[in-house]
Each structure stands twice: as C-alpha cells, then as structure tokens.
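User: My advisor, Dr. K., asked me to get a structural model of this assembly before our group meeting. I'm new to this, so sorry if the format is off. These are the inputs:
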Amino acid sequence: MFPLTYSMEFTQLTSLALAVVIGLGFGFFLERAGFGSARKLMAVFYLYDMAVVKVMFTAIVTALVGIFLLTAAGELDFAMLYIEPTNYPAAIIGGLVFGAGFVIGGYCPGTSVAACATGRLDGLAFVAGIFAGSYAYAEFLTGLDAWLASSAQPDVTLPGLTGIPMGWFVLAFVAFLGLAAWGMKAAERRFAGLRP
Amino acid sequence: MNVTTATGFPARENAKAKPAPFWNPYLAGFGLGLVLLAAYLVEGRGLGATGAYSSVAAWIANAISPEHAQASEIHARYLASGSPLTAWLTWLLVGTFVGAAVSGLVAGRFAVTVEKGPRLSDGQRLALALAGGVIAGVGAKIARGCTSGQALTGASVLNAGSLVFMLAVFVAGYSVAWMARKEWL
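Assistant: The format is fine. Below is the predicted structure of the whole assembly, which you can bring to the meeting.
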C-alpha cells in the first residue's frame, strides 16, 4: 500500500499539495521545539540544553520504528524507499564543513526557514548564505561533484553492511535513546550555569 | 493624554507578554518523527531542505544566461528536472515557512530580532550568519544533504552514509563551538 505515490499515481498538483501539507507539519514542529531560535539550537554545543539531540533522536527513532513496523506488517514496501547513495569521504568532509557552518551561522537549512518565518533577521542572512553557497558550488565545484557522484554506492544500510536484521538496530536505537536521555539530563545539570 | 495612556498601556503590556515556552523536546521530536514517517509513506522519500536552494539557483543562472547555466553540469541537472515551481522540495519548504510562522504567531514568539549572545553586535552577528550559511550550504552540497535530507531522513532508514554525516556534523560542531563561544555565550 505505502508509499502512496506508487500505488495511487498522484497528479502533479496533488503531489505538490501534499508537499505543502508535510512542510506545514515540518515547520510547525521545528518551531514548537524552539528550532527557529539560534540560541536554543546552539545551546546543544555548550551542553546546557540538549534539545537538538533530544528532538532529532526522538524523530529518528519514531520514524524508524514506524517504518520497521509497517514494513513487517507488509503495508510498506521498503525496497521502494529512496536511499541516498553513500560516499564516506563526501559524508565526512561535507559533514565537517556543514557542522562548522552550523555553529558559525547558528542554523541549518531547515531551521533557518523557521527562523525567517518568526522574524529572525539572522535567519534571513543565513538563508541568503546557503543560497550563495549552493550557487557557488554549482559554479565552481562541478569537478568535485562529478567525482563524488561517481564514487557513491547505492543502498548502503547498517543491516546490509552487517547482516544483522533491521529489528535489532531498531531495538538498539530505542535503548540508546533511553540511555542518552539519562546522560543528557546529567549534562544539563552540570552545565546549567551557562544558561542565559 | 488620558486616552493615550489608557489605550496605550494595555497594548504595551500585551506586546511584552511572555512568549509561550517551547514544547517538551521529546514531544516535539515525536511530532517531527511522524511528519518524517508521513513523508516516507506518501512520497517514498524523506524530508529535505537544501534541494530547493539549488533548484532556484539553477533557475536564476538560467534567467541571467542560459549558455552559462548549461555550462555547469549541476545547474543543467536541476534545470532538466524542471522549474523550481514544480519541484516537490520547493513546496515542502513553502509549507515549512508557513507552518513555522503559524506556530510562532500562535505562541507569541514572532519577533523581528537578531539571535545572538550578549557580547556581539547585531552587525557582527548578521555577518557571521551569512558566512555560516555559505559554509553550511557548500557542506550540504558536498554531502548531498543537510540535517534534514541526510541526518533525519537517512538515519531513519539506517543509511550508513547519513549516520557518518551526522557524526561528522557533531564532531565539527563541538570543535568549532569553543572558538565561537563569544558569539553564543
């Protein structure tokens, strides 16, 4: 049955309308979590408020459990899901560069949109920056892009790499979230003095 | 005089009304996870925030000079997939903007302001936000995704590359945080 786009053949208009609806939810929960605020986001790096990790990890575990259960029930065809091809050098270099930009700029591409939507001028500056960065990448780094694309491998997932069934990873992620929640509570107490 | 104070005072009180607190992060994360799950169930792929930027960048390059745009394989690829107005990721981002605006307005958190630590001027902060955006933009292009398209979306299908990306983001984040402490603390 799922993904619906393969079983229902949406018109382009329906598909784009669904994109807006999903986006509405995305923006709503980002803002509810406080992710339209750079100070709230950056608090994670000074350990006095770990909301970024809590929200991200809970979201990942929620979606992971949902995908696992629906696949097990035969409702979701996992093979039809898009899996971004893996390229470890790209993930490491891109991740390091991205992480530096995240802390210097105070936002990431999705959260800066939430920041703009709630009046944050620094969010607007960050959006202008991503735009300039994307433009510069397309102008000057086509060679790097072609090399990264050609050396990427499709469908590299933890169950595929290790031979351990997905269910065990789901259990491990849930257990890790529980442990991390306990650890983050301790960190927040220890670094509470940095809170503004 | 009397009238202005009588009407002005409550209005000012209103403007200073405390914004509602943010949600419990685990509850907000659960909501976000359901949205991510919905994206997979509907469209067969997760969320993404960076794709729309490239799509618009290619469109602008093409508007300025089609020959120039075609000379870049990346611009050409985005142009081949159509106008940004028909791109799924563009409308996802439009929805994100509206959803966040509604949430912020309802909670009294909308404010035209600059987010920063107390030791920085607004101008310095805006310059750093712009520079950070450029750096994060390039990083997201190299990694083919950002916190949404790689970290959230990839981790929820146990994509190995996405998990490595997420680790790298936090390693860089905690490393740079010490240098950037004047900006935030």
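One thing worth pointing out at the meeting: Chain A touches chain B through 129 residues (CB under 8 Å).

User: Perfect, thanks a lot.
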